Amino acid sequence: MPATATAAVGLAALLDRLVAEPPSRIHPVALFGRAVAPLDRDWSRPSLAGVVVAVVLPLLVGGVVFGLVSALSSVPLLAALLSGLVLFSTTSLRMLLVEAREVVALSEADLPAARRRLRSLAGREADSLSASEVRSAAVESLAENLADGFVAPLLAFALVAPVSLAGGAAAATWVKAVNTLDSMFGYPHKPHGAASARLDDLTMWLPARLTAVFLALAALDARALARAREQSDHPPSPNSGWPMATLAALLSLRLEKPGVYVLDFGSAPTPADAERARALVARTGWLFVLAVGVVVWF
């Protein structure tokens, strides 16, 4: 079992490095999003509908994955292969790094294009953002999406896979489904999304803080965590402030979402600063992969 789980982590990391993302027409997360999109509508009892969606759908897709991996448990190689594919589809590092690099490059060459490209990273109104604000949003998204889209599913796998490989794959799937529902429904103007947003807040509490720790470890600067803690509550999210503030503290940056929050540890990010942030996030991601591989092995 330990070798099988470690092989699954290694396969997922290798595929992320070589492939980045499957086409959206066959990407499991994109398919899940399209399947649940019709539920994003007005409901006569939005709170009840929201609770049912938030609870049932992640359990349903997690259960499907659990059943598929369990069915292959007698053939460890196939079980590891399927679990690795599950981890690959529920995590994303290379695509995050590529999108951030493109947004930053465009912020110098073509600001309107940079604003449009930013939508692939951050769900915010970008039409009036300056070049430095676009770069700030890209850096913020690097930190936040590292926690939500990479550390969180891998952490779920690491916590469960030593006991059950199928359970670990299902746990990673469950986390990704929770986060996807939040990204689709979890907005104040959608009352049916309140349950998805609250469940995502609970689910991401530990990954966000663990991401901050690993960012500090990757930068060899543990004192940044104390500096980040002073401003980690500035964003309205109970979680995203931790990785964002830690990244800003490590690189002495001022990150701002206009009219919402400011994380002030220095100056607005230049293109060179954004590249340093991207490199640190990449290093942190690979450090976390190594840590998960060790955890599931033992």
Automatic annotation (TrEMBL):
It is found in: Cell membrane. Pathway: Cofactor biosynthesis; adenosylcobalamin biosynthesis. InterPro entries: Cobalamin_biosynth_CobD/CbiB. It is a multi-pass membrane protein. It comes from Salinigranum rubrum. Converts cobyric acid to cobinamide by the addition of aminopropanol on the F carboxylic group. Its main location: membrane. This is Probable cobalamin biosynthesis protein CobD. The chain crosses the membrane at residues 48-69, 76-97, 150-175, 280-297. GO terms for molecular function: ABC-type vitamin B12 transporter activity; threonine-phosphate decarboxylase activity. GO terms for biological process: cobalamin biosynthetic process. Keywords: Cell membrane, Cobalamin biosynthesis, Membrane, Transmembrane, Transmembrane helix.
